[in-house]
Amino acid sequence: LTFSLLSVTLLVSFGSSMLYGYNLAVVNSPAAHIKAFYNATWSQRYGHGLASGPLTLLYSLTVSIFALGGLVGSLLVGVLVERYGRNGTLSRSALLVLLAGSFMGFSRELGSPEMVIVGRSITGLHSGICLSVVPLYLGEIAPKNLRGFLGLVPSIFICLGVFFAQVLGLPELLGKDRFWPLFLSVVVIPASLQLLLLHCFPESPRYLLIERNDVCGATEALHRFLGTPDVQDVIEEMKEEQWSLSSVETLSVWQLLRDRSVRWQTLSVAVVNAGMQLSGIDAIWFYTNIIFENAGIPVSQIPYTTVGTGAIEVVAGLIGCFTIEKLGRRPLIITGFCAMGICSAGITVSLLLQTALPWMRYVGVACVVGIIAGFCMGPAGVPFLMTAELFTQSHRPAAYIVGGSLNWLCNFTVGFIFPFLQMSAGAFCYLVFCGVCLLVALYVYFVVPETKNKTFMEINHIFA
């Protein structure tokens, strides 16, 4: 593990991946303040406030528009990484965060709820791009024995982003009414740092050699990342992949979906990415305060309970990161989904019994913590790592578009529908998440092979 490898991994994780986690959780604690701003603005414009239903709908749109922006960003990944490269795409995408931060930061001064919604959609656009490009970049620059470790570092920063949003949202910090625009726009700081420093690191060697046929540039990048003058073996492995793909152009999404030779890889990416979002984790991140309030936690204690769950996320993410190269990908993702499914059922039981047994509220909190811990140990980062590992260079951009699109579509669905699902189904809404988690775990157990310490060509041969 060289200084350059570690530095660029930390930089793109801090400047891109962490912002995804931050933006997932940032709307949770200031929800009441944002709704009050919407209501006051509406009253100034039209002479009357918003009713409860339309206000809930407008706030749900604010929460879930982030996912629609992410969907658009994921659809642009293939074009961007082919034109600008992996490093270049990440550098340029940081400008989107600066724009979004300006919209959200000045929204209250200008009396414009629309600026909050537009800013949220632009941050989603940035996250949609980076959620695919960061693991793609790291998967291509990392040696095979470190690919799992470096591939899960972004998931730790996603957890850190959620944790920082929870901490900054405390009433003693930025959780007050007058600070919520600043709270939403803090994202410009990590993005600015990435914009300033990322150009100091080279482009992906695999991109340079296989797609640009730049052997000299790829060799220099490998020297920099691997810290050794002898990189001929890696160059030969890349040339072998380039030769095998010499008659194959970079595939479009439609070509990928029609390619029978990679149908199981494509289906696996689709199942795992959709299952990751439909597992219920987004409902917990978006609506933590509401979930804890329904579980019977006193309102004054909810912000601190939420911060506690954020700390557990970070610990669980670290455990997953430091054990993935020993345990492998499959055990982490199967165990994570099974734990989440069991805990989802536990939340339902605790909500049904808490009237008769008041101590069941703590069981519900423990189950929420279990879902978060299970997710952060495996499903948070392994699906993106698997997408990089299951495909060769010609198929990889299209695979990230497929996985990313499903990821964001399901994210939007959960974020928008969950409040209404909770109102209609009550405690039983969590059983839907339970079923999804257990089905995904079964699929991975029976279909997806272990990819630890294998080259991209070896993994391709296993599926073939």
From TrEMBL:
This is GTR9 protein. It comes from Oceanodroma tethys (Wedge-rumped storm-petrel). It holds the Pfam family Sugar_tr. It is found in: Membrane. Residues 9-452 form the Major facilitator superfamily (MFS) profile domain. The keyword Transmembrane helix applies. The gene is Slc2a9_2. PANTHER family: MAJOR FACILITATOR SUPERFAMILY (MFS) PROFILE DOMAIN-CONTAINING PROTEIN (PTHR23503:SF25), SOLUTE CARRIER FAMILY 2 (PTHR23503). GO terms for molecular function: D-glucose transmembrane transporter activity. InterPro entries: GLUT, MFS_dom, MFS_sugar_transport-like, MFS_trans_sf, Sugar/inositol_transpt, Sugar_transporter_CS. The keyword Transmembrane helix applies.
